[in-house]
Amino acid sequence: MSFWWLALKDMIHLGRDKKAILTLVFMPILLIGILGAAFGNMFQEEEAHIQKFKLGIVNHDEGELGELLEKELFEKNLATTAEVESIEHDVELLRQLEEKQLSIGLILPETFSESILLGEESSVNIISIPEAEIQSSIVEIVTQQFSETMGVELTGMKLVAEAGDRAGNPAGFEKHPAPVILGNPTELPFDVLKETTIEPDQKQVGSFQYYAAGMGVMFLLMTVVNGVGAMLEEKEQEVYRRILTTNLTYSQYLLGKLLGLLFLATIQLAIIILGTKVLFDVHWGESIAGIVLVGLAYVFSACGLGVLCGSLLKTEKSFSTAGMLGTQILAAAGGSMVPLYVFPEWLKEVVTIFPNALALQTFLNVMSGDHIQAVVYEALILILMGIIFLVMAFMRLSLERRKSYA
Amino acid sequence: MVKDLTKKFKNIEAVKNVTFSVEKGEAYGLLGPNGAGKTTTIQMITGLFPPSSGQISIGGIDMIQTPKKAQDLIGIVPQEIALYQNMSARENLKFWGRMYGLSGQLLKNRVDEALELIGLTARAKDKVVTFSGGMKRRVNIAAAILHRPDLLIMDEPTVGIDPQSRTHILDTVRRLNVEGMTVIYTSHYMEEVEYLCERIGIMDHGQFIAQGTISELRESIGDRSRILLSFSQEHNLQQVPVLLPNIDDKDIQLEEKKLTVFHKKPQEVLSELVQQVTKAGAQVKAVEIIEPNLESVFLHLTGRSLRD
Hints:
The complex is a heterodimer of chains A (about 400) and B (about 300).
Chain A: H1 2-15, H2 18-38, H3 40-43, E1 53-59, H4 65-77, E2 82-86, H5 90-98, E3 104-108, H6 112-118, E4 125-128, H7 133-166, H8 187-193, H9 207-235, H10 238-244, H11 250-280, H12 288-312, H13 316-334, H14 345-350, H15 355-367, H16 372-405
Parallel strand pairs in A: 1-2, 1-3
Antiparallel strand pairs in A: 3-4
Helix pairs in contact in A: 1-11, 2-9, 2-11, 9-11, 9-12, 9-13, 9-15, 11-12, 12-15, 12-16, 13-15, 15-16
Chain B: E1 2-9, E2 12-20, E3 27-31, H1 38-45, E4 53-58, E5 61-62, H2 67-71, E6 74-77, H3 89-99, H4 104-117, H5 133-145, E7 151-155, H6 163-178, E8 182-187, H7 190-196, E9 199-204, E10 207-213, H8 214-220, E11 225-231, H9 240-243, E12 252-254, E13 258-263, H10 266-279, E14 284-290, H11 294-302
Parallel strand pairs in B: 3-8, 3-9, 6-7, 7-8
Antiparallel strand pairs in B: 1-2, 1-4, 4-5, 9-10, 11-13, 11-14, 12-13
Helix pairs in contact in B: 3-4, 3-5, 4-5, 5-6
């Protein structure tokens, strides 16, 4: 079990390195703060904040649908958006509009219901004051949607009722359609205004959230580069040769080093998550288990990648140079610097071959509302990547060591 | 036991057919100038890398076939400081003790004893980076003896340290040897090897050029002292051997500004020697008579100084 002590020693060693702590912990928090604040507007969607408006309705409709539109839809279902006032005459409506007592006026003609039932066009007048352009659109869209939906529904029900008559009305359908609005009509018009690039049941990710995840995955790569660099540096020193003369086998040495790296990366990720939560109130999603799973899976794959690169390069100097360059390239391609949202769709797919890109996209999904079940697949891919990297690294190192004994 | 040990690095043969054995409880010195092949030999004996050919056996265990088993019996004090600089002396010793499989109270006791032995109990909590070179060397030794190895291998453990620390280290090694620990001690300081070791092997250019007890090696040069004449400038003294008919040619070595003559009775020939070289036009700057020692043996065998 000596490899545990090797891992612990590495942790103690790093814990006493003030420069490393500064780079690994404070730098990411600082950068998240700067980038999150700098790109704040880029991520905020221009959401239409519609103030409640006064809607005057003159209902000349001789049928039932005018009243249904006024009472059921505007008064009840749009109560939070519009304050509806019934007005007797057109003149009174216009007067109130001129005096800006109303924002929008809606005049329903006598033939409103009839036109809908016949599937014909109905001339509805919508009058608005200049400042209420958006509100006017809402009223127009709601009325239009109502007309179209009711037309289809009533025609369908009429056909079903007639068919029932011919068959002796076994199901007891009513001959005249009931004034029922199917579905939830308020959702339809607002979808148009609230359309976003994410799924309807997902929340949008803010700039602080994005850069917390983006910087988190990037700095974790840097930590791995530092950790593997330190490992290579140690290999160039006398302590490594002394370690090899102790009870520790070469495999145990590698295992101890990997454990140290995993501990270190996990702690760093935890600090970034908690730090951004406390300092910037970053919401990492509803699923703590999801974040932990993705985080650990990413740590594993990143460490595997680091150890593989370390096994291919022999000196600390060459590794550190290549490692930092590689980290920057991976970070740029993976969306840590430029938001993934500006990437073409195909590129977003392609870059998921990199652990950091896949981890970032999965973190963002959890932040948007995904639960653990939805990210298990991605987490397994990350773990699989880590296993493949480590097996390749171990084979390479074993071959190298066997050569020295050949 | 080491037999026919050879190590080749590409086209360079760093160690050539080295054979020697060390008895249990013995202190064996491996003497030679820098680059003689001592460290390569030691690294093969400790199992750091395998020889190109030859055999290594520690306490009857084959180092090449079962290195970890054989390494259990060894404590290694490397030439460089093999310690973690940002950890304290105690933390370092605890770490190395754990690497040797020690734990719990036994580990604590061994660490305390080792610190006591090297005289650093009071500085146990200080980071190694704050220590002097000599103190670091002492901790370097302590790390190798925590698990009480049967064989302690020390590769130039006193390089670059102050005389006080050197004395402390030599006393410590002697004490361990007296207590029964077998020691292989490599150095290019012949006085250290003479102080510690009963038997000595002298290496040069990757091979043994002499081996035996100190008295045996002294006898190999006829137990002769060295007369060392130093000149203020380089002189052509090619005729000097002719002028000293009683001295064999091979007992006279001429370097740039130095003339070395081996002789059993240096006082008897010194006056004549000085007269002859003065006649030859040389200005003698200093005269020194050195009693027979390992340095003399090495010089006689190779024509070079150990520190060259």
